[in-house]
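Q: For a teaching session next week I want to show students how multiple molecules come together into a single three-dimensional assembly. I've collected the sequence lines for a complex. Could you give me the predicted structure tokens for the whole thing so I can convert them for display?
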Amino acid sequence: GDSVTQMEGPVTLSEEAFLTINCTYTATGYPSLFWYVQYPGEGLQLLLKATKADDKGSNKGFEATYRKETTSFHLEKGSVQVSDSAVYFCALSGNSGGYQKVTFGTGTKLQVIP
Amino acid sequence: NAGVTQTPKFQVLKTGQSMTLQCAQDMNHEYMSWYRQDPGMGLRLIHYSVGAGITDQGEVPNGYNVSRSTTEDFPLRLLSAAPSQTSVYFCASSYSTGALNTEAFFGQGTRLTVV
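A: Of course. Below is the structure for the complete assembly, covering every listed component.
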């Protein structure tokens, strides 16, 4: 079945550092890929998405490129801020019996220190 | 613009008690689902619904029931609470059941402790 593997956290960075959170996936067909962010005490919210190979999703300075050849969707940001501290989930959306099925990774906690 | 509303936000139950977690969305979404979030395990799908009157099991359905009598509401029932059900529960909805590129909207979660 479908699966998503994320790098384990927590990740601790200084403000303005470069961020990479690795995500690889296993899926049949042509899934869509997502990054969700969960701020403390809140539900998940969509950060960015990509729906086909070589698409780049971007939002709030974060980027991720759908790499079919390496089955990856790594999240990057050039300069993190304290307000980026949160848990980040990689997810894929595939087809299961004609319906959308979303599979989440285990989440990576990011802490940015001033 | 309420989105997905979950109640309660916090709950403590004794082993063997039953309760219902409420979820409502006002976006006319077809697809609704329940997840539980546990440390180191990400989000695991409990039950989902592709429309009113239609529900199905997810990855970890045991000990939980759902129903979908209206498009808006998707309650999750714990039949006889067990300590293993201590978790954070999230309800989510999305517009289309068939399109793979639709995003999910999440409620703020219910933190449940079973003692």
